[in-house]
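Sorry, explain these tokens?

___
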Amino acid sequence: MTYCVGLLLRAGLVLLSDTRTNAGLDNISTYRKMFVFEDPGERVIAMMTAGNLSVTQTTLARLQEAIDDPDATDQSSIMKSENMLTVATLVGETLSQVTAETRSRMDRLAEAANASMIVAGQRKGGRMRLFLVYPEGNFIEATEDTPYLQIGEHKYGKPILDRVIKVDTPLADARKAALLSMDSTIRSNLSVGMPLDLVVIEADALRVSQQRRIEANDEEFAAMSAAWSQALRDAFTQIV
């Protein structure tokens, strides 16, 4: 399982993913689920993946192959697409094709071939956008009313986002909310785990503003987790 969350704010984008992949309690591995494609000053695109690992890895490999193609066009490469809507469409078409191919080979295990992706970014002259792409290739987009999207094991991390995140939330607060959302998920589900990958993209920067991996022994994350737990305990005792 996994947990990835993307926040679309007036100030920019905040994206966070875990790295745990498991095929049973005795087969746990670490795989990156955050991928960044960047042409500084022109465009920046970030993707997060959840679901069948072979599907997501093949999808990303084909997208990269199209980027590297010397004959790439705005209809074949996400790094030449005219806007983020076309990027989401290309990702959806590729994911759908790979999913169908994998399902045809797996037959009775069709459900296990499911995968989904979060696609976010901005092109020069365009606005920041955030999409959730489904296995069938269709997608939904984050809006001012719902400025965040999740994939994977999302239910534990949703309450804090519902209460805190608004389109005008500052990036620092959004970053904190995303990390606490992940902390809540890690505490409640063993299939989600460290290390974490964090990406922040400021509006109109057209490049990654912050990118870091948060390891299990990260002191800042541990202190934030402890402070959040204490704040919840204090709030609970104060309610009559």
